[in-house]
Design a protein that fits this description.
Elements lengths: L2 H15 L5 E3 L6 H14 L1 E6 L4 H15 L2 E6 L2 E5 L17
Parallel strand pairs: 1-2
Antiparallel strand pairs: 2-4, 3-4
């Protein structure tokens, strides 16, 4: 990983630290409604925190990979049951984007 990418990742984690989870994925897993809400949240906010209450570490990893594949989101960080996802918007809304607005 390049030095610039490492700095960017550190900055994203710092921003994400202050965020609250916008979506919780529980027993039913990735339903169409959950996918739609994740898509909306990523479009609006670009950087979001998601809580995964799906059981084992393997189940969390599989769910994270499925989210990334379906929504084109990049995993920035994973700590316990919480993941931080990034999907940059082509034209972000400064009032909603967690990457632009001051927290």
């Amino acid at each position: 990983m390049s030095k610039k990418a490492n700095q960017d990742n550190r900055q994203l984690r710092a921003i994400g630290h202050k965020l609250k989870p916008v979506v919780t994925i529980a027993g039913k897993g990735l339903t169409e409604g959950v996918i739609a809400e994740l898509d909306r949240a990523l479009t609006d906010h670009e950087l979001i925190k998601v809580k995964l209450a799906v059981g084992s570490r393997e189940a969390r990893d599989a769910t994270t990979q499925q989210i990334s594949a379906q929504l084109g989101a990049e995993l920035v960080q994973s700590i316990g049951n919480v993941i931080l996802l990034l999907r940059r918007a082509p034209s972000p809304d400064p009032r909603k984007s967690n990457l632009i607005k001051p927290l």
